[in-house]
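Pipeline run #58 for the internal structure catalog. This entry was flagged by the ingest filter as a single-chain record with no existing model, so it goes straight to prediction. Upstream metadata was stripped on purpose; only the residue string is passed forward. Reviewer on rotation: M.T. Logging verbosity set to normal.
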Amino acid sequence: MLVGFSRTLILFTLVVVTMRVMGKRQIGELQPFELAIAILISELAAVPMQNTGIPLISGIIPILTLLVAQMTLSFISLKSIKARGIICGKPSILIANGKIQEEELKKERFTLNDLLEQLRINNTPNISDVEFAILETNGQLSVIPKSQKRPISPEDLNIPTNYEGLSLDLIVDGHINYNNLVKANLNEAWLIEELKKFGIAKPEDVFFASLDSQGNLYWQTKTSERGQN
């Protein structure tokens, strides 16, 4: 019992570390070879977990081998455009200049129903509104609408806008993020003083607080009260 428990923890930790080293991509963004390696790693880890008669090292070595293979292929594709095309493939243009490319659909084994479904997922229900639709190497469809169908931007209307940077999380679940306070050239004393202005006695009572690029503080307490200065 204890042996199986410890083997499971070791293999689980190894798989988590391996996937972490492989990168932060989501499942839907994995290249085909990355997805294949991820599936193989999970299968290799499952066998020693279920069968304690198999030496633990017999599961660890193949997993580490696949990790090295993945990192090697990623490095090669990073350094060589030609190798990148071979390993990851190339994007396919399914709609070009508003016209469906039948040959590309056949080549990618992509039906019209698949295409229409992906367009709807991309908030483009009318195929006549599409200028280009590109099937990316990770299987996702990028849709470029016709210029007349694109949302109006402030630039189109010659409306000046202020810079909007990333907001900084200052408090998360009652814990102060001191690194972000330093980035904002602020300190804990300033934060506590600001919270007192809203009747909040201590940071531990705050569920979330953030500071935007304009210096506005947004906060929400653990009792669901919220506000912004």
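catalog note: The domain at 168-228 is CATH 3.30.240.20 (CRO Repressor).
catalog note: The CA atoms of residues 98 and 131 lie 4 Å apart.
status: ready for reviewer M.T.
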